[in-house]
Structure formats: C-alpha cells, structure tokens
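Deliverable D4.2, example record:
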Amino acid sequence: MHVDGFRFDLASVFFRDSDGSINFEDPLIFGNIAADPDLERARLIAEPWEGNPKYPNYELGVGRNKPHFPGSGWRQWNDRFRTTVRHFVKSDSGTLADFMTRLYGSADLFPDSLEESCRPYQSLNYIDSHDGLTLYDLVAYTTLESWNCGERDGDAGIDADVMRLRKRQIKNFCCALLLSNGTPMFRAGDEFLRTQYGNGNPYNVDGPLTWVDWSRLDTHPDVFRFFSKMIAFRKTHPSIGRSTFWREDISWYGVGARVDLSWNSQAFAFCLRGASQKDRDIYVMFNSYWEPLKFEIQEGSHWKRIVDTFADSPDDFIEEGDARILPERSYVVQPRSVVIFISN
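Output generated by the structure prediction step:
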C-alpha cells in the first residue's frame, strides 16, 4: 500500500510482558519488527508513555543510565518540546533556556555522545496533535498553556488587533517548529487556523467540531502562505534539519553578545552557520517579550531579512531573491515576534 510508516499510541505498553511487568532489556515486539523485511525500513513513531495516570510508564528519550525507549531507530513524540514552546511563545518566564535546548534537537533526551550516538531526527517535535487544543485554539482560548491574546475566547466579537496578534503568535509557533533540529509535525488544518472552539478532548465526537473546515483556507490565506513559505525555507536550507546535531556550527546570543538566561528573560538570538552543509548562514532573533527590543547582530555581514512575523502578509515572508541587505548591524524586533536573516 506504499505506507511510509506507522505511529503507535501509548507505545510504552510494548515494554510490558504478558504478566503486566515492564521489560526494558528485551521487549519481544521490537526485535520482531526489526527482523521483519516489510517493517525494518518503515518509519516508526512512538508516543513513549502510557495513558494510565497511575502507571504512566513515561520513557521519552534514550539513555543507558535510565529506563528508556528501546526502539533505537524510532522517532519519539517529544512532549517536552510541545510544552516548552507553548509556554515560551505565551511569554511565560523561566522557559528560555529549555526552549534553546529544544531548538537544538533535545540532546538532553537524545544524547549526542559516542556511547549513545543519537540523532536529532529521533525527536519528533510538535506543538499540537490530535489530542488537545488545535494550534489556533492555543491562541484563541485561555488555559494554563494557552492565551486568547485579548479579553475573550473564540472568534465572536474580537477586534482586528486581537486577530492580528493571534496570527502573529501562530507564525511564531510555525517558526519555532520549522527552525528546530528534529522531525517537525503539525496538525492538518493548523496552516489555516483550524479550530475546535476550545474543546481539547473531542475524542468521541464525529461532526463539524472535529471535521476540517476547509472554508477557513479561503478566510486565512495569509497564514497558509506563511506555512508554505516556511516549509520551503526549511527544505531549501539543509543546515536546519540535519541528520546530526548543530554542534560547533551554532552560536547563541542575546540582544547583545551574551544570552540572558535569567528567570524573566524572554529574548535571544542564534547564528547557524551553513558551510558544513553547503548552505548559507542563518541568523534568527526571538522576542517573546511584550515590548520591542533592539538586537545587535554579532557576526557576519550583508544579512538579508527574510521573515518578520510582526509584519502583515506578504511582508512577513520575503522571497530570498527579493530581500534587501540590511543597512545596519542592528534590528528592532517588535513585541512577540520572530525575525530570520540569511547571509547574502
């Protein structure tokens, strides 16, 4: 049937033997899959925990010094990425350092060492999925991990400024996902603001609440355009989603030369050098603060601005051939915005 692979819900149940005990040493099913000629090359994705709150069997990541998911070649749903990115984009304090770790490829969970020899693509990065709120509902409804960007939930009665901020936050989520090293995943319809009207658990609903409303594609073509351009940008620049970690090719900065890692810090930048991948250099600035911040570019020259999520479409994403060289070595990043430059 030409299926590329399979995603397994609550996949840590595979560790359990017939008596219910957990077997980390040699779970039979992993060996059987690896030895099957039809499955050995399939892309296998695990949700590396179980749904029983009393026995969560949470085994995200790899590591010889702790229980870990035994499928070495499997991708794993990284809920640490999901939670951290949600809080950082929402402007919550104490999330910046962990957000940098998630962008890098979550090497704390998939160690970049000779002993472990993990790959960043083992981390399946996502912000939303079929479980929980849609990406748009994360910016249209207020919960512990979401914020409606205004004073009321949903679409009814909101003004143009609120919708503009919501779209900017969606674009920020898109940038965080597609600029991260790892395997990116987003939910069908996120690219045109699919909504479940704030319902985070409609597992038993078969109706308009859970169906994809394609009319929103006609209503929000600017968001669809931005997603399309960012996907193309990631594919065009192999320095981002590599089979290895970024290592010495990445340098981290703040608005100045050093990253502010304090609890309330909400802005940083990085330069990803692309020579090793036969690619251009990329300079990215994140500002999740609610005031504009002036960033000083710390390396390189002749930078061209490609993305500024504060700008309205089509200026939020400028084609590389049409982008102009930045005349100064500084750039004011507007509140809750992401800016991306490439070297000329």
